[in-house]
Amino acid sequence: MRKFEVVFQPDGVVAQIGPGTTILDAALSVGIHIEGPCGGKGTCHKCKVTVKGGVSEPSSMETQHLSRQEIDVGYRLACQAEVTGDAIVHVPLATRLTAQKILDHGVRIDVPPTANVKKYPLKLTRPSLEDQRSDFERIRDTMSEGGVSTVSLDVLRRIPGLLRGNDFHITAVVLGDELVDVERGDTSNANYGIAFDIGTTTLVGYLVDLVTGTQTGVSATMNPQSAYGDDVISRISFVTEHKDGLERLHSKVIDAINGMIDDLCQQGEIDPNNIYEVTVAGNTCMHHLFLGIDPRNIGPSPFVPVVSEPMCVQAKELGLQINPRGRVYTLPNVAGYVGADIVGGILATRLWESNRIKLLIDIGTNGELVLGSRDGLIACSTAAGPAFEGARISCGMRAAPGAIDRVALDGDVVYTTVGDIKPRGICGSGLLDIAAEMLRTGVLDPTGRMMDETSLKDLSGPIRERIDRSEDGLRFLLVKGEETEQGHPVYITQKDIRELQLAKGAIFTGIQLLKKELALDDDDLSEVLLAGAFGNYLNKHSALKVGLLPPVGADRVRSVGNAAGEGARMALISTEERKKAEEIAKRVQYIELSGRKDFMENFAENMLFPVS
Ligand code: FES
Predict the structure, then answer these.
(1) Contacts of 242 (CB under 8 A, 6+ apart)
(2) What is the ipTM of this complex?
(3) Res. 321 pLDDT band, cuts 50 70 90
């Protein structure tokens, strides 16, 4: 097939591409990651690039989302424009998938190391006419503790040469009750594992010394699947709409994880062959994509996963570059939208053994909620939409460098940005802050309606003057164009506020229905635990002000960081904790909210802001 040359600027990278390939796929093929929150549907217009040369005519989505002027100067949507000849593509900074602030720490509970992987240095007696035991029997009998009942053919084949070539001095590597490897001499101190949190947006890995239980490295990166859609639903759509969609998403995450393994090995100065086990926590869709399992039935009702049970598979089956005889353990899922990440979070926060009622909230594009104590746990998932991830917000962006992450109205607008650089847009925590401040100052009324300048006489001039009317309605000028990185002003529009109300209304309603199931009041909540990146970076006072959280008082709200990753780490270090995770998944009662009449009844009311 004829190939065309597509040059990506300013990188200067060249892709050799067949006709009909989208610019987005061409970019991905040479490692250039472009924003693609809508998963290539042409609706988010975040993948804007300029193209010169052989490219298809603008699609209907492009003519809808790009102005005539933009099209005339060569702007195209990378997910829509197809290569028809040699071309030069310029990918602006704003279009690139930039690394966001990644949360790589969380509540830390020290558990005694009782890892599933054990290494036994052995000095075996040599065989003789008086002692004709088999090599395997000899190894098994010499181990002072632990039982080995199985061994693979692959390992058996290595044993005779290794024993005799090393004076019968070897180290047996035992995983559970299986002899998974034999190594020369005494390598018992080189015993490592990695715990991964596979999030929809970010990946975090913790390298752990399995002898001592100490963490010796952390690696974090963006989930490269983000180029195929920001949320779980768009990833599932990608799988259903592309014949090779599952394979592509699976290999993307495996490649990224292998990169992290490499990074962790360099940090710890260790050999990847000394990594024997990996544990994984992720939402149910990420869990399936990691394992290469088709997640399509999680998408539509009745939202059925292929598997919820914990899985233990060979690392080489997944192509993970650790010891080829190593294993991968995935924590169990609860349901299609309450996954192993939540099980990890429950484990790490000790919610399952708490004698007081607590609420655990993990907010992403779905709000995953767990309520209860040691007497019982109940969970649900509610579609919050992508507002808190900065998507569908006119000047929204992820919590990447340049995102406005804190805002106050103090005489005028005061803000900070991620990375302390010029603003590029606003992320979820900034959106929450500005909404809370607009409510406090009366710029928003409790219905979420933005007031015009004339009805805000008491407000300081500099704030009042920031309100103006565009053809889409009222908007609030957060940052003037001359202060931003790209020279474009950052606005908060009436529509942005509505998106926020939809998101917070869905989460608040989910909380309300869980409380109703257990016949609890807000006073019964001893603590509200916020898991995940958004929960960690948000201002809890703002979250309470806008009614995202139940009105419990800020002293009862606590961030627990990357609780999913912490749960995966605990399950790696301790077989006891692993059993507890499996028990938790069985004990959590899942409540399906979709189609519930009381959800819709309460949702509209919960979109309103609290009157303080
Ligand atoms: S419009 Fe191209 S990825 Fe959304």
Answers:
(1) 248
(2) 0.99
(3) very high
